[in-house]
Every structure is written in C-alpha cells, then in structure tokens.
Specification:
With about 140 residues, the protein is mostly beta strands. Helices cover about 10% and strands about 35% of the residues. The protein has a single domain, classed as Immunoglobulins (Immunoglobulin-like, Sandwich), CATH 2.60.40.10. It is globular, with a radius of gyration of 18 Å.
C-alpha cells in the first residue's frame, strides 16, 4: 500500500472547492446618489458596530436604479451577518441627526430598526454553507 501524498496543489484545490460566495442584493434605496457600504460580520458581539470597525470584510458598491449588489467570494462555511448603509454623500460615514441615521441602513434578517431595539449578531446572522444570496431592504428612519 502506497502512502498518501498530499501536495500544496491538492490542499489549494480542496480549499477552493469549500469556498462559498455570498451575493448581497440591496433594494429600496431612495436614490442613486453616493454608494452603498456593505459590511460582513462573522463574530458574536460584532453587531451593533457603532465604531464601524468590527467588520470582517467590507465593500463599497455603486447604485443603479435604486439597487446595489455586492459579492463576497472565498468565504469559509460559517455564520455571517450583513449590514448596509446608503452613503448618499460618499463621505465614508453614517450621517446622523440627533440620534438616528439620516441615511438608509439595513441588516440581514431585519425588516425594521429602532432606537429601543438595537440589532445584534445572533438575530442578524445566517448560516453560509453553500453559495447564497441575501436581500436587504434599505430602511430610512
């Protein structure tokens, strides 16, 4: 019986096969101005992310016809959550009024957000065990 020979190419091939792709479709944007920032989270306690620094990966995508699409490739199987905000003036931050955002926001598994019920990773997260599409409706408060 011959010993099993594992090469770097074999290991790379196995990792490519197990990589997942996540498509994020953002709908309900009130205009085509600016960009949508799409943040991907993979750790308990990372949401709410008031500092905008707890994300695992982040993309800024263009808006067309009040919609935006982001694609995260090469993800390992696991639990993820997505948050978005419509950066209408393209300044790289969520503009706020007194307490609430002036720009559109949204999270996976959330159809509404309010000041008294802050989002969390457990509720926003989903299992990514195959290629998947998540749709997030922008919420304007």
């Amino acid at each position: 019986m011959k010993p099993l020979k594992i090469t770097a190419v074999t290991l790379f091939s196995l990792s490519v096969v197990s990589a997942q792709t996540l498509h994020v479709d953002v709908t309900g944007l009130k205009n085509d101005q600016g960009v949508v920032q799409v943040s991907l989270y993979n750790k308990e306690g990372s949401i709410p992310d008031k500092t905008q620094k707890n994300y695992y990966k982040r993309l800024r995508v263009k808006i067309k016809n009040h919609q935006a699409n982001a694609i995260f490739k090469g993800l390992e199987k696991g639990r993820y959550a997505v948050s978005i905000y419509h950066d209408e003036n393209n300044n790289g931050k969520i503009d706020k009024g007194l307490f609430l955002p002036k720009e559109g926001v949204g999270l996976s598994n959330y159809s509404s957000i309010d000041f008294f019920h802050l989002p969390d990773f457990t509720k926003a997260s989903f299992l990514l065990d195959h290629d998947k599409t998540v749709t997030i409706e922008a919420i304007y408060l």
